[in-house]
Amino acid sequence: MFNKLTAMPADPILGLLTKYREDPHSQKVDLGVGVYKDESGHTPILSCVKKAEKFRLDTESTKVYIGPTGSADFNRLMSELAFGTDHPALLANRVRTVSTPGGTGALRVAADFIKRCNPNATLWVSDPTWANHTGLFEAAGINVKTYPYYDYDSKSLKFDEMKAALASISADDVVLLHACCHNPSGMDLTNEQWDEIIAISVNQGFTPLIDMAYQGFGDGVDEDAYGVRNMAAAVETMVLCSSCSKNFGLYRERIGACTIIGKDAARADIAFSVLLYVVRCIYSMPPAHGAAIVETILGSETLKQEWLAELKEMRERINGNRAMLVAKLKEKGVQQNFDFIAEQKGMFSFLGITSTQVAELQEHYSVYMVDSSRISIAGIGNGNVDYLAESIAKVIC
Ligand code: PMP
Q: The organism sits in which domain of life (predicted)?
């Protein structure tokens, strides 16, 4: 039966990484893969993670099944991190959370859950959005459409068009919003813009699904949750998909959370039973190790403070890299305005150059980025920013 298959296209980012690794150029630069890197280009294990991991290894006494919800402590601490401890939806007992295999697992659980809520629901995603969103939801049989979001010409939000599109979406549908650090554009909603989107969501009655893969990478843990918290306080139903891959540096441990908010406690319980059924039908139970690390950190005041400090260091390095690249491009005589890079947030921005220029950067200067000119900001450092800015200048001037 396999003989009838035709090959799927290879993942463009993984292909880029292979080419980068094979490139012998001594000054090669990788701006492809979206993982945090330190100044030396390494993705470190956070020191709070090492400590929590040691504690768990010393005290863990069983590997027995954890159950489809995962760890109750992890779930509670994650929803408090997202919403804040005194959020009205938490106080009203309307919030239910399951641990999931990464943010991707949370999204897939959300997709199957939505399909059970309304088999005809359309999921609306920003144009552009994280490449995996569309495939993930379509794999669950959900129709995916886009709403206007990023203006490649003006390097800003198409906010009026976005509002107009959302204002025509029905209560049967779901709208996916990025909590912060929009992937791939780095272009976030301001708090005032969130307020307007929240008002439209309430008015239209659709269910917002917020993807929060980078809490703490933009402006801070609480600041980045502005949209999540205010949306959750305003709407009747909501879905939140969180990831611990970036902010805890737990990428390969595969840990995240899927949270649903019901209209009241009784309806949240019913929805939760459906969510648990969905989990059982996909992977039965989530992995426990990453959740154990996160709950140890968030449950200890000392480790939590250490985590917040390490997260701040990662955030400040990324924001610093943004400002540094803009300054270096000016220094190398580039006339084109790249100030938007310093204003955008998170791991990514579009450089805004053509695919021919992207290819030229790769071929002649060994600077690697995806065709769309999305760059991973963490790949920049003091050691390569001069070479990078010079290479960009040569290609675009
Ligand atoms: N959502 C977005 C917007 C992302 O960028 C990512 C990771 N690249 C995810 C979800 C999934 O994260 P995870 O690695 O935890 O599955």
A: Bacteria
